[in-house]
Amino acid sequence: MINIKDTSLLTDAQVDHVGIVVQDLDEALATYCGILGFRLLERLDAPDHGVEIAFLASGNSTIELLSPTDRESGTARFLARRGEGSHHVCFAVPDITRTLEELRANGVRLVDESPRQGIHGLVAFVHPQAAHGVMIELLERDAAHLLE
């Protein structure tokens, strides 16, 4: 059981996006943009992560579609194990190192003990077992990717 020492860990965090794993990115874009009306913000290949990614928006909400390009990637393993669907909820935090230190001090199980470079800044993941089955991504956006 986690002993909560500080209840303000993510009080200033904002939901940045929800990550969804898909088998076929083009097919998913046809659904999300063509049928559901989402707007494509950015599409990119991330070979270092073994995925192709698309960021979509509707109103104030953003989703990230992830499609594996490398059969050995974590995303490919997730897709093989669980199928298409929700992968993570991402929270933007002002200081990812401090946030990770506080989570560790509170006994929260982490996937990443220290931040690593992601697409839009530094990222780290909280283990799904620490958050009732939901993987949480923490994101400290770099200056080039700050949202207005």
From TrEMBL:
Taxonomic superkingdom: Bacteria
GO terms assigned for molecular function: metal ion binding; methylmalonyl-CoA epimerase activity
InterPro entries given in the database record: Glyas_Bleomycin-R_OHBP_Dase, MeMalonyl-CoA_epimerase, MMCE/EMCE_epimerase, VOC_core
EC id: 5.1.99.1
Alphabetical UniProt keywords: Isomerase, Metal-binding
Pfam families linked: Glyoxalase_4
Residue intervals of the VOC domain: 14-141
Class in the EC hierarchy, top level: isomerase
GO biological process: L-methylmalonyl-CoA metabolic process
Family: Belongs to the methylmalonyl-CoA epimerase family.
Name used for this protein in its record: Methylmalonyl-CoA epimerase
